[in-house]
Design a protein that fits this description.
Strand order of the largest sheet: 1-2
Number of strands: 2
Oligomer: single chain
Largest sheet: 2 strands, antiparallel
Order of helices and strands: HHHEEH
């Protein structure tokens, strides 16, 4: 917590305690209105909330831009592959094994033999990997929410969050 906000919170808490001692009959709404007028806590929180909202908007925009750029990257990588395949095909058909230029040298070379699987079910079991077991967290949550006791798992304490609606 930043120092100015912490100081304002401490002032707010102190004044609240004093007002409750001096005016024990006051209702919560009057107390809240009085405290809002006596401190800048609401204003400081509003500044932080506005900043958080701006960061959220920037985050959404950046996420969208990253997706666009990933699409562009994918298209460029596709062009790289197509151009390489074109060069290989033409060099191979023309019998050209090497091209030497001032800025690069390109040469055809043999590639390792690729693995081709024609029938997965015919491959012996010792060539298969088994994935490690993974917890079904959704099923665990549903069971624990239904008051079932499950060794090694339980529901944690809930927290508090803030909901900000933008007009």
């Amino acid at each position: 917590m930043t120092d100015p906000l912490l100081l304002e919170l401490q002032l707010h808490e102190y004044l609240r305690e004093r007002l409750l001692v001096d005016f024990p009959e006051e209702d919560e709404e009057t107390l809240a209105d009085t405290l809002e007028g006596m401190t800048d806590l609401h204003d400081k929180l509003a500044v932080i909330i506005r900043s958080q909202q701006e960061d959220r908007v920037i985050s959404v925009a950046l996420k969208e831009r990253i997706q666009e750029m990933q699409g562009r990257l994918s298209r460029i990588q596709g062009r790289v592959e197509k151009k390489r395949d074109l060069v290989v095909s033409v060099m191979d058909r023309a019998g050209i094994r090497k091209i030497s230029e001032a800025d690069f040298t390109a040469s055809l070379r043999a590639t390792p033999r690729p693995l081709v699987i024609s029938d997965e079910e015919a491959v012996p079991e010792n060539y298969w990997k088994t994935p490690p077991p993974k917890l079904d967290k959704k099923l665990l949550m549903e069971s624990l929410a239904g008051d079932r006791e499950i060794p090694g798992a339980c529901l944690g304490n809930g927290g508090v969050t803030v909901s900000v609606r933008v007009r």
